[in-house]
Amino acid sequence: MKPVFRLLNEDIIKQIIAEAKEILWRLGLDMAHDGVRERLVAAGSVYDTDSKRLRISPDQVDRALQDAPGSFCLYDALGKQTHDFSPGNVHFTPGSAALNILDNASGKMRKPLTADYVQYAKVVSQLQHIASQSTAFIPADVPEAMSDSYRLYLSLRYCAKPVVTGAFTMESFAVMRDMQLIVRGDAQRLREKPLTIFSCCPTSPLKWSQVTAQNLVDCAENGIPVEFISMPLCGFMAPVTLVGSVIQHTAETLSGLVISQTVQPGTPILYGGSPALFDIRYETTPMGAVETQMIDCAYSEVGRYLNLPTQAYISLSDAKMLDAQAGLESAMGATLAALAGINNISGPGMLDFESCQSVKKLILDNEICGMALRLARGIEPREDFPSLPLFQQLLDDKHLLIADHSLRHRKLEHYLPGPVIDRSNHARWQAEGALTLGERAGRQIDKLLAGYTPWAGDSMVKDLHARMAEEASSHGAKLPAAAACD
Question: How far apart are alpha carbons 480 and 142 in whole angstroms?
Answer without folding.
Answer: 7
